[in-house]
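The protein record quoted in full:
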Amino acid sequence: MRIILTGGTGFLGRALVDRLLAQGGLGGGAADMAELVLIARRAEDLPTDPRLRIVPGDIRDPSARREAIAGGADCVFHFASMMAKAAETERSAAYDVNIAASLAFMNELRDTGTGPRVVYASSIGVYGDAAKLDRIDDSTTPLPTISYGSDKLINETYLSDLSRRGELDGISLRLPACLPRPRVPDDSPSPDFASSVFHALKAGDRFRMPVSPAAAMWFLSLPCFIDNLMHAARLPAPAYAGRRVLQLPALHMSVGDLVAGIEEALGLQDGGRVSWHPQPGLEERLARFPPLFTPAADALGFVHDGDRATLVRRTLAAIR
């Protein structure tokens, strides 16, 4: 089996590289991995492994895409993108990466004539202002209110159409917050505060939380994320052919409950290490998520961590 991964030096991509190499491929009865190909500008942080081949460049480089695809592909994980803030502030560059290069990459995969499985990393950003909704489920209409969400929706739609035509075998996964991402400074105006509080409390530090305890989000641990990505790559196509876009399951939890779970796991009975300093507008934009229902993904075997204690334990264990 030959696997191609774009965005392999990013947060999720790097974790997936480690898992693929550790278990020799997708597992679950799938063929062993003969080669894992990454399009990447740098290789110094990647493991040395004879199965791992680095194609220098990035997703915008047609020659890098051609070289990666030239040997064929059984499975493609397409993660490469500019993230939400950059997609808004550096629009021309984000268009080149998130739309033009991404669609060109799908066309080039189509032109191989082999119809590889393509697992596309979409985002909950497609829903727009989730705070205005009572719930989100499989029937919720995507109405993005940021460029990043629009970019993801464009790619979802195009990959679904190529799959309808039988030219690719694609599945797009709308990804919730993943724990733990790298630590960011206290009071950072980004959803990564939910990861940073894990880093801080595990290190024995205090933490200034930029939202209130009532703020609510959807969470998955990093190991559970990777489990779901691997599951998407192994699923038999007929199982999901009628629905090529899925919202991943996640635990819907208040930030106050999350912090309490971390304190409990670390034996911090006295608490007090987290102080609450809500920033105007931040919670309304990033942390007032309604309940989430994912029956289509549930029926296909996608899972969340199950309970708060498991989510917290897996997240703490992932911090080195």
Notes: The chain has a mean pLDDT of 93. Residues 39 and 55 are 5 Å apart (CA to CA). The longest strand covers residues 117-123. DSSP finds eleven helices and twelve strands in the chain.
